[in-house]
Amino acid sequence: MRHLPLAFSLLTAAAAATPLAAENRIDGQAPNAPALAAYGDLPIGVRRIDLVHENQIDIVGIDPAAGASADLPRYDRPLTVEVWYPAVAGATGETSLDVYLRDGITEVALEGRAVRDAAAADSAEPLPLVIMSHGYPGNRFLMAELAENLASKGYVVASIDHTDSTYRSQAAFGSTLVNRTLDQLFVLDEMERLNADANSGLAGLIDTRHTGLIGYSMGGYGAIVTAGGGLSEAAMGWAPANTLAIHEQGSETHAAMADPRIKTAVAIAPWGMNYGLWEAEGLAAIDVPMLFIAGSDDRTAGYETGVRAIWEGATGVDRSLLTLEGGGHHVVAPIPAPEESHALGVADHYIDPLWDQVFTNNIGQHFVTAWLDIELKGDTGKAPYLDLVEKGDDGVWSVNEDGSVNPDHSYWFGFEEGAAAGLRYEVLAAAEDPAPVPLPASVWLIGLACGALGSAGRKRRRAA
């Protein structure tokens, strides 16, 4: 297992036999964790918010034979959101999170640092908002380790339970594709409403004008669409009654969803490119800087024809790609596998067979912190953490005993010697003349099989 020496493995195995292992901690720090993985100085609170998005199309209730002109069923769509935020100093109380595992039946406790329903900090200035979206299926706690870490550094993090897409509500796949972006934008509006509500407990705390998106897997799909990446015509067949047409590239409906409050997005193992959901036009319309994170052996979202192709195709913006060599779909994002998940046979949903999950959680915390601090807070002091030689293995460690570095030192800033092995960080700037994204023949065949109709319209643009 990468970055997990034998002695540490033995210690971990011994700890598994003690009651401490059953705590399922989400705040772990590996011995060689990069610098920005460390928690910030702020106390953390967490609270649940129940929202209702009224009068939405009920994708699950649509007759599969219904045409685009059919009178589609509607419903009031419930959404549960978990919000992590900086809390008042000295806050005490419950710090466990009751969550359902991948089986959708077993409920377990996660242990973190956030205090349930703690009073929010009295911040001198409102804090940037991060909207977080899980995979399919998943839930609002799947990236809890990243959410509370960011909250300790001065962010308000709203993590969504996407109805029809959680472990307990998993339903029609088309609902997930249609609703991800709609859910994200609705939650953004609701967080702005709560910020203005003197009785919300979050009044004055949230700066929605500086919002970032973080999405994992299907959540990454949603982040890309919300960031401007309109879907291909071939993708329209993935949902009934042409309901995906609102997200089609170049359509007026997709253009109308552009929201200037969203300043950046982070997509971890985003799903969809390997099934033809985007093509060159849609990816070139992404209009906020993006950080992509992926394992090079991702067999769910794909790498060369998946995440990497999205990164290459987002030619309209500055974007970066962090690759974990040999990593699979679950590397970086999910919480460490809860102890109970092993006996239930669902631990593979949370772990990577090659990389240690706590360490990769720390890698994610490090890079996401640097990225968001720059993009949402304007903290240029974090730039050295992203100014790196491409391959971690190629960095030269040249440090003197007193800690001073020599001119030939080029190791990744913030990483201990050897800790960047197997990592690759690449940067592409916005191109004035975007090159088309080559798609494999299999993608075009899928597109032909879908045979969907789309709608035409103007290209999407986001205001500055």
From TrEMBL:
The region annotated as signal peptide is: 1-21
What's any GO biological process attached to this entry?
Answer: lipid catabolic process
- What are the protein's GO molecular function terms? 1-alkyl-2-acetylglycerophosphocholine esterase activity
Q: Any idea where the PET hydrolase/cutinase-like domain is?
A: 129-243
Q: Name one Pfam family in it.
A: PETase
- List, alphabetically, the InterPro entries matched: AB_hydrolase_fold, PET_hydrolase/cutinase-like
Q: Which UniProt keywords apply?
A: Hydrolase, Lipid degradation, Lipid metabolism, Signal
- Answer yes or no on keyword Zinc: no
Could you identify this protein by its name?
Putative secreted protein
**Protein's organism:** Rhodovulum kholense
Q: What is the lineage of its organism?
A: Bacteria, Pseudomonadati, Pseudomonadota, Alphaproteobacteria, Rhodobacterales
